[in-house]
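W.,

You were right to be curious about this one. When I first looked at the sequence I had no strong expectations either way, so I just let the prediction run and decided to look at it fresh. Below is the sequence, 123 residues in total, followed by the output.
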Amino acid sequence: MKPTILILGKDACQCSGIADLLAQNGFRPEVTSNFSALAEYPLDPGVAAIILDIDAMAPDNNLFRRFKRNNPGVVLLGMSNRPFHPELRESMEKHIFACANKPVDPDEILFLLKSGCDANGDV
């Protein structure tokens, strides 16, 4: 069985669709709208990646920096309606592995997830 993937977002339909896609591809998805999960240090060791709806939260480079310092092996994947986030420049360069456009293309999100997890040896 593949690792747990945490899906953080406020759009229940979108998150459910991503969770179904991940489950069909052997991952163990967990959906939450509670963004405080990013502040819990460290996460459960079974969590390999987080798919995060960047549009549903207040941008915070410090949060991503602290998160990655405490969870260096967890891959952060973003999803957003916007192609560019100047307020998250540091996070996009150093902490967020990739950011997919919404609505999320199933092949793209699987490719990004597998690429990020492969880089960490989680898949």
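Here's what jumped out at me. The chain has one domain: 4-118. And, maybe more interesting for your project: The CA atoms of residues 55 and 80 lie 6 Å apart.

Coffee later to discuss?

I.
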